[in-house]
Amino acid sequence: MLHAGETPPGLEARAGDARLRFAADADELVGALPGSDVLLTWDFTSDAVKKVWHDDLARSLRWVHTASAGVDRVAFPELLAAPLTLTNSRGVFDRPIAEFVLGAVLAFAKDTARSLALQRDRTWRHRETETIAGRIATVVGSGPIGQAIAQLLAAAGLDVRLVGRRAADGVHAFDELPGLLPDSDFLVLAAPLTGATRGMLHSGTIALLPERARVINIGRGPLVVQDDLTAALASGRIAGAALDVFEVEPLPADSPLWTMENVLISPHMSGDVVGWKDMLVELFVDNLERYRTGRELRNVVDKERGYVSSSGGRA
């Protein structure tokens, strides 16, 4: 069994008799992969696996697990074509991300950023703020994270429309999205990054939003054509954005997004709450025991769709 990145807390003590090989970078990964049957990619921002992959090097692999909900860093064609199982960390981030989204909605409605700026200037300026009750939130992504967001926003009084790949009970199909945008007060992007969703928010779809709309992206940066969104924010075409993910991370220091008063920026941390790494280890250790005993693995990714499309799957 092999791990790439920093040492996950408690993994060595809980891995049983599994033989661990650690690789901190691509060079070390080249030496550690041969003969390994399991690969844990702990650093979800790393492209090391893609950089070093070739079929002979990874011939022994039977299972790859990523410590993230998104699999875009490891879902490259060669790995997807290999006879192995891919799993993710679905379920760990659902509630934390939903709380983050609700916090962003409230921050916009209650003009929190301006209050903090005025406080720093010791300026007393009375204003009226917005209520979120009855506002419309369109949440794109009907997986566990999107569902958790929808439930929490609905509990706070918003009218929520959930959008998924295809229509289902309480879920709009992705191709219905253009018709949902014109009256959306909040557009929340929680979809996996796939060929269908890459660049889904661009100048054309932004033009369908009302000027009062705020965009919240907690999915993946490339869901958005960032230059188009930046232009819309700068011109006042839409009212604001809360962005946790970006096309390039870290966000470059010269990006105009940093200085926009109507933009809230966070460094890809919407799901990272106290204890999140322990929860990631807990999930992996449970799956490792399932793998060793030939039982069904949790969070098996549908390689064609690029996300978990059912509750299980077999190694």
TrEMBL record:
InterPro entries: D-isomer_2_OHA_DH_cat_dom, D-isomer_DH_NAD-bd, NAD(P)-bd_dom_sf. The keyword Oxidoreductase applies. This is D-2-hydroxyacid dehydrogenase. Pfam families: 2-Hacid_dh (PF00389), 2-Hacid_dh_C (PF02826). Keywords: NAD, Oxidoreductase. Belongs to the D-isomer specific 2-hydroxyacid dehydrogenase family. The keyword NAD applies. It comes from the Bacteria. Residues 23-301 form the D-isomer specific 2-hydroxyacid dehydrogenase catalytic domain. Residues 103-270 form the D-isomer specific 2-hydroxyacid dehydrogenase NAD-binding domain. The lineage of its organism: Bacteria, Bacillati, Actinomycetota, Actinomycetes, Pseudonocardiales. Gene3D superfamilies: NAD(P)-binding Rossmann-like Domain (3.40.50.720).
